[in-house]
Fold this protein.
Amino acid sequence: MHNAFEFHINNSPLIIMTPHSGRNYSSRFMKNISLDLKNLRNTEDYFIDQLFFPNNNNNYSYLNAKFPRIFVDANRSPLEIDKTMWGNSNLDNLFDKKSIKVLNGIGVFAKYNLFGEYIYSSKLPFSEAKWRLLNYYFPYHKKIKELIKKTKEKYKKIIALDCHSMASELVNNKTDIVISNVNNKSSSVEILNLIKKSFSNHSYKINTNKPFKGGFITSHYGKPKNNTHFLQIEVNKNLYMDEQSMLLKKNSFFKLKACFDNLISDILLYLNYKA
């Protein structure tokens, strides 16, 4: 098992990923931090990995990042780096200067936490950025490519779900789940509607491609013309946890888990998969 992620490749056309549920805060990271752990962890997709892992039914492949997104955000381009965070970077030509994520302080290396508080106590050497990319970011993406390749060797059409949670204040509690496919560029409309219908059957309030259109993983790997369909799913945290205490609402969580179990069954039925 890689120290950056956990994964399992099953004989299935469905892949599920959770890139923002990692909670291994290393001492190497924490020694340069100006915030306490609670104010770092508010950026996590709390408990989302527990909706899917461990996978006891072996009916989908999975990939779960163990590192926190505030340390390295796997759902960003590796060029989305804020040069003001680093003490000795003369690599302007390598940075994506126009990235909205970077301008908002949430590039591949976050500058701010969820409340806009500055994370680091001082600038870091750029060698630290390179170390994180080489040891966490690129291995994670290498594993995504491996999962796609091995799945496509057995199945003509595959579906991958990139799963996240969102703060309730972002949607004013008017939306339970957001399904995104980069405005129909990373998956077919048919598959988007299939997932929307599956969630709606459980009385959840659904939005599509608003306020999220899909992140780097969805847009980069989704190739519907090649029958490789990627969709991003965002779940309102208030559905299943108390956002202040960060404690699980167990009954609501298990209801949500049952909904995702049904979604997985619906997707596999659509793909004519038989275990």
Summary: The two ends are 25 Å apart (CA to CA). Residues 240 and 250 are 7 Å apart (CA to CA). The longest strand covers residues 158-166. The domain at 5-270 is CATH 3.40.630.40 (Aminopeptidase).
